[in-house]
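Reopening closed ticket. The problem is back. First fold of the pair:
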Amino acid sequence: MTVLAAIPSPTQAVWELGPFPLRAYALCIIAGIVAAVVITERRWVARGGAPGDVLDIAVWAVPFGIIGGRLYHVVSSPRPYFGEGGDPLRALAIWEGGLGIWGAIALGAVGAWIACRRRGIPLPAFGDALAPGLLVAQAIGRLGNWFNNELYGRATDLPWALTVYEWTGTRAVVGADGQPLVLGTFHPAFLYELLWNLAAALVVVWADRRFRLGHGRAFALYVALYCAGRLWIELLRTDPAETILGVRLNVYTAAVVGLLAVGYMVWQRGRPREVITRGRDAGDTATGRGDRAGAAPAVAPATAEVRDGEDPGGDGGRRHSDG
C-alpha cells in the first residue's frame, strides 16, 4: 500500500481567460463570503430577523472588511512593500493575496455597525447570527493560501507535511526537467487553521443552542476560539512578519483579543437572549424593545421564545448546513 508522503500544493494559482485573470485566491474569498451570507441569513431569519437584512448589511461590511484586512496585512508584513527592494504600490494589489483577519473583522464591524444602525438592528444581535458563518468563510478562504503556496509552518517530514514549491507569485518555478522546483515540506498551517475554524463553528452552534447565547456572546465565543487556535498556529509559522521582542505581532494580537473576548462573555453572562421583531425599514427591526409605531408585529412566542435545550436558531443546530 502506498502511503501519502506529503500533501501536494497547486502549481498554479492564476488562469488567464483572455484578458481576464482568474485567481484562485479571489475565488476562495468570494466563495467564503457567499457561504457566510447564506448561513447567516438562515440563522438571522430563524431568530426573527427580516429576510434580506443580511445581504443589505454585507453590502457595507464586506468592502470595509477587505480594506481593513489589507491594511492589517501591510502593517504586519511591511517588508514586501516598504522594505529594501519593496514596491509600495503592491500594497494595493489585494488580488495577489494578503488579508489580515484582525483588520478585516475590525473594519468589517464598522461597516456592519453602519448598516445595522441604518436598519435599527443592534450589532451584537447580528454578530451572534453571523459567528458560525464567519468561521466557515475563513475556512474556505484558507484554501486560497494553499493555492498561493503560502501560510505554512516549520519544515517537517510528517506524513501530512505540505509540499511547497518555489513560487513566482502566480505559479511554481519549473526546472530544466519541466518539473516544479520543490522548496521543501512544511507544516500545513493553512490546513490546521481551516480544520480549527470548522471545529470552532460547530462549537459555537452547539453553545448557542445549548445556552441560548445573546447580546454578542456567540460572537465573542467565536473570537475567543479563533484566537486560541490562531495563537498556536502562528507559533508554527516562519515566514517574515513584524515581531516584538522576537515574537510575531499576530501572537500578541491573538492573545490580547482572545482575552478581551473572554472578558466580554463573563461580563454579559446571565443575560437572556434578545427577542427580535421583524421589520423591513430602518427603525422597524428591534431587539428586546417590543413593537414600535409602524413596526411589524413581534415574532410570535413560538418562534421568539425557545425552550431551554432547543435550537434558538432553527437551522443553527443543523450539522453543518449552517456552520
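Second fold of the pair, where the issue appears:
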Amino acid sequence: MSCHATADSVREEKQGNMALQIIDRDLVRKLLPMETCIRLMETAMLQTASGTTCQPPRWIIDLPAGEGKCFGLMPGAMADPEIFGAKLTAVYPQNGARGFQSHQGTIVLFEAEIGAPVAVVHGGEVTAIRTAAASGLATRLLANAEAGDLAILGCGEQAREHLVAMSCVRELHRVRLWGRDVERAHAFALANASRSPVPIEVCTSVEQAVRDADLICTVSAAAEPILESVHVADGAHLNVVGSSVAQAAEIGAELVRRARFFVDYRPSALLQAGEFLAAKAAGLVDDSHILAEVGEVLGGSHPGRQSDEEVTIYKSLGISSEDLVCAHYLLQAAQAGNLGSRIDF
C-alpha cells in the first residue's frame, strides 16, 4: 500500500477529512525489528547517495537549560516511496541516567497527492532503532568479514540497540562494555544478557574494553574524546555515534586522520561531524578525507574497505530519509494489521 492509496481510501471514508495514524512507542517496537530496519536503511542510504532525496542539514538550537540540551528539526522528501515529512526532536543527553530516552520527539509523515499529514510516529523509538540499524548496515559493508570482538563504549539506549544490530550483521564471539558509571554498566550487562550471544564483560577503562577489538561502537554522551588512536587495533571498524553536534567529539583527531572515514550524508558531516571538524581544525585532514557516504559503498560507486589491516570509521549523524522510510513502513504495517489509533484530521 502506498501513501497515495492511503489518501484515496481515507477520502472515501469521509470526504474532506484525512485520517491521521498515531503510532506510539510500543507499536514502533512491535513492528520495527532490527533486521527489518537494517533493510530499510538500505533504501534510505541508496536514495541519499543517488541524489533523489531532499535533505537539508539538521536545524539545531541550543536550549537555555544548557547541559548539551538542544532542539532540532529534520525535514526531508523522498522519491521512492514518494513521501515527505519532518522529525521534531529534543535531545537531552542526561536522560539515560534518569530512565528516559535521550531523544524525545515525533515524526510527521505526509502523503504526496494532496499534501496531507497521514501519520504521527514516536520519534524517540524510531531514532533508537534506526540509528543502530544504520550502524549495522555500515558494519556489514565496512568491517572485516571475520570481525566479532565487539567493544561498546557507553551503556545507554544506543548501547543496547547497537548490541542487537551488531549481532545481526556479524557473529560475535566477545562483547566488552565500558561506561563512566561502573554500577550502571554492570546493570546494563545484567539487563541485556539475553540480547548478547556471549557474556557481556564489564571493563573499568576504555583501553581495556577496546584492546584488540575489531568492532567498536562509541555510543556515549561524551563531549571530549574518550578514545584515542593508540588504543585501536589495526583492522578495526568503528561506529562513532554518540556525538551529534559540531562541538562534541568522542574520538581523538589522530584516530580520524588514521582511518578511512565514511558518513551517512556528506553535507551534514561537513557541518556537524564533531570528530571530523576537530581533526580538520587541527590541520590533520581536509574535506577530501570523507571518502564516501555509506550509500555509495552499498551502490558500488566506492569500494569501501580495501585491506584487512586498515581502520574504518562510520560517522553517524542521522538523516531524515532514515526516519521517513521507517515512518512509511510503520504506517503500512499498522494499517495492514489494523493496529494503532486513527483520528480524523
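Update: turned out to be a display glitch only; the data is intact. Residues 1-14 have pLDDT under 50 and may be disordered. Residues 136 and 165 are 5 Å apart (CA to CA). Please close again.
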